[in-house]
Amino acid sequence: MAAPTHTGVEHFKPIPLRVGSSLPSRVAFALRRFVDLQLGTIWTFLGPRLADLHGDLLDVGCGEMPYRSFLPEAVRYTGIDVPQAGAFDMQGNAEILAFDGLYIPFPDATFDAILCTEVLEHSPEPMALIAEMHRVLKPGGEADCHGAFFRPCSLCPL
């Protein structure tokens, strides 16, 4: 029997985080946060953290931007995701900038803060993506990175 080969295609499809404004949508999302311990933990942890941010924030692998609602209005938000995010049932949004999943298309030291939730485990080169986040983070900036089945890594020295 031949050994399996890596095709570079991810077969796991994460469930999009959609936070609707209708009452049934809000109730369904609250139930999901209760049942999905990973989501509930991240949601509980990020709320207070993001509420205190200022400056320019980069959301790497932003999906449907579910955590954007935690941010103060003064924060300048930039979300990036891979073009194939639609394969994960993500709804398109003109505000989301496309990137190739590795090279972040911004100059060095552009952002005061970076948010990266449940993305690194999908990257074929997570260390290279972390290096890119470090490159675009301003000196003294903060990064919140969270991966599936890993404890939150807040204020990580990238």
Automatic annotation (TrEMBL):
Pfam families: Methyltransf_11. CDD domains: AdoMet_MTases (cd02440). GO terms for molecular function: S-adenosylmethionine-dependent methyltransferase activity. The keyword Membrane does not apply. Residues 58-142 form the Methyltransferase type domain. Keywords: Transferase. InterPro entries: Methyltransf_11, SAM-dependent_MTases_sf. The keyword Glycoprotein does not apply. SUPFAM superfamilies: S-adenosyl-L-methionine-dependent methyltransferases. Signal peptide: none annotated. This is Putative methyl transferase.
